[in-house]
Description:
The protein has helices spanning 21-35, 44-47, 63-66, 87-94, 99-104, 106-110, 138-155, 182-190, 198-208, 225-233, 246-260, 277-282, 285-303, 309-312, 357-377, 406-420, and strands at 11-17, 75-81, 115-116, 158-165, 213-215, 237-240, 264-274, 316-323, 332-340, 346-354, 382-383. With 437 residues, it is an alpha/beta fold. α7 crosses α9 (198-208) and α8 (182-190) crosses α10 (225-233).
Amino acid sequence: xxxxxxxxxxxxxxxxxxxxxxxxxxxxxxxxxxxxxxxxxxxxxxxxxxxxxxxxxxxxxxxxxxxxxxxxxxxxxxxxxxxxxxxxxxxxxxxxxxxxxxxxxxxxxxxxxxxxxxxxxxxxxxxxxxxxxxxxxxxxxxxxxxxxxxxxxxxxxxxxxxxxxxxxxxxxxxxxxxxxxxxxxxxxxxxxxxxxxxxxxxxxxxxxxxxxxxxxxxxxxxxxxxxxxxxxxxxxxxxxxxxxxxxxxxxxxxxxxxxxxxxxxxxxxxxxxxxxxxxxxxxxxxxxxxxxxxxxxxxxxxxxxxxxxxxxxxxxxxxxxxxxxxxxxxxxxxxxxxxxxxxxxxxxxxxxxxxxxxxxxxxxxxxxxxxxxxxxxxxxxxxxxxxxxxxxxxxxxxxxxxxxxxxxxxxxxxxxxxxxxxxxxxxxxxxxxxxxx
Length: 437
C-alpha cells in the first residue's frame, strides 16, 4: 500500500549553519543546474535511478521522478555564519568553484546573506568571527534561531524548511547527564551548561520547530536521547552524522568487498592532507579527536570481527589528518591496507585518492535536504536510519549498531523509497520461482 505523502508543492527553504565551502558549493551547483550551465553529478536524488518490479519489466525511473521531491526551482537558501561574507564572496574565498562560473551566478549568490551565528570559540578553537549572536542564556540563543527560521520562512514565502549542519567540526564531547532527557537538556540551555555546544542549539531550535535536521559534521549534535525524545514529540525526522566523502567513502566501498571474499586484514593505515577551513579546524587536537572517532568506527562495523576473529580480530587501524594550506579544498588521502589470503599469505593494497572535499559533499547536502523533507511529508519522525548511506558515522536506533556497509545502506535506502510508493521490496534472490525476479 502506498504511503500517504503530503504534497511537495510550494517553496522549500534549505537552511545551512555554516555558509562555507561545502554550503556555497552546493548552492552554486543548484543555481547552475537551474540555468542549464552545470549538472548535479553525484546527487542521488537528481541523477540516480531505481529498479522497480521484476527485471523483465525494465522499470528504472529516476529517483526525482519516482518519489515526490521538492523541485530544484522551488528551493531557496539561507544560513548562518560567523563571517559576514555573502554566498558569492564566501564561494570566491573558498576557491572550490571556478571564478568564471561564480561570476555568472553573482546576482543570485550575492543576495544570500548569512544571519548572525550561534558560536562559541570553546568548541572551535581555530576560528573566530564577528557575525555572532549574543544573549544571556543558551535558551535565548535557541529562541533567536527559532525566530530567524520563522522570519526566513515568511520573507521567502516558504511552505516548509529543512536544516543541514555544514559548519565546522566542534571539539569532542561524550553524552553526559545533560543530554539524557529533554527536561535535563532544556534546563541546561537555561543555565548555560558547558556541555551544550552550538550545533546542539541549532539542532534543538530546528527540531523544536518541527524542521528536519541533519548533522554533516562528526560532533555530538542530534545523536543523544534528549534530541531523539524531542524529535518524536514534534514528529520531526533527524539524521547524522558526518558527510561520507573522501577516504571513508573508499573504505565503505572496499571493506565490504574484502569481507565478501573472506580475505583477512591485519592493518589499515590512513592519512590525509587538506588545506581548507575544515583542515584548519581539524589541526586542533580536540576537533581532530571528534573526526577520528567518527572515521574509526566504520571498519569494525563492516568486518564484524566477533563473527570471524581469524580474519579481523587484530586489525590495527590508524588515521592521520594533516593541515596543508597549499592544497586548499583538494584533499588527498593515502591508504595502506595489509591483507592476507589462502594459508595466511600476505598481500597489500595501496590507494591514493585525490579528491575535492566540497565537490563530494555538496550533492550529499542537497540529497539529505530533499529526502528529509520527503520523510517529514510522509509522516516519518525520529532517527532516519535509511539515510545512513550519506553518513560516515550513521545514527541508529537505541540499542542497535549502525550499518556502515555502503551496499547494505543503499539497499535499505532504495527499499524505503519502494515502500513509500507501494512497490515490492527487492532482495535480489534471483530464483526462477520467486515472484520478484
